[in-house]
Amino acid sequence: MRTNWKPFLYQKKKDAVLDEAFHQAESFGRLKLGSHVIFWELGFRWYVVPVGRVRKAYRRVEDALTKVGCRTAVMDIQKLMLVLDDGSLLELQVCEGNALEAERLFARLQTEHPEIQFGK
User: 71 vs 16, 64, 74, 77, 93, CA distance in Å?
Assistant: First the structure.
């Protein structure tokens, strides 16, 4: 299933409130958590979703095989899964191999937004 990212595209200098939220947001790997929005980087663009649209959030860890020198290694890819109010699922990559960053993001999201259901 492919996700249509266009509705979530963040364009700088189009909305002053979003621009301020972007600059004030705390970075967690490839994601930035603002007071009322979540920004994430995908390719060379930034995307945004209002926290008010998120109904459920959980973490997913996927293993990826990679080459390190002449050896094969397994790298954990940390993801934040968001179920939105329309039932769609957003799969956002937090970071590669840094579980502490993903745990910190998830804990911060839980404390600041208790209205979201956490866990599968």
Answer: 48, 14, 10, 19, 25
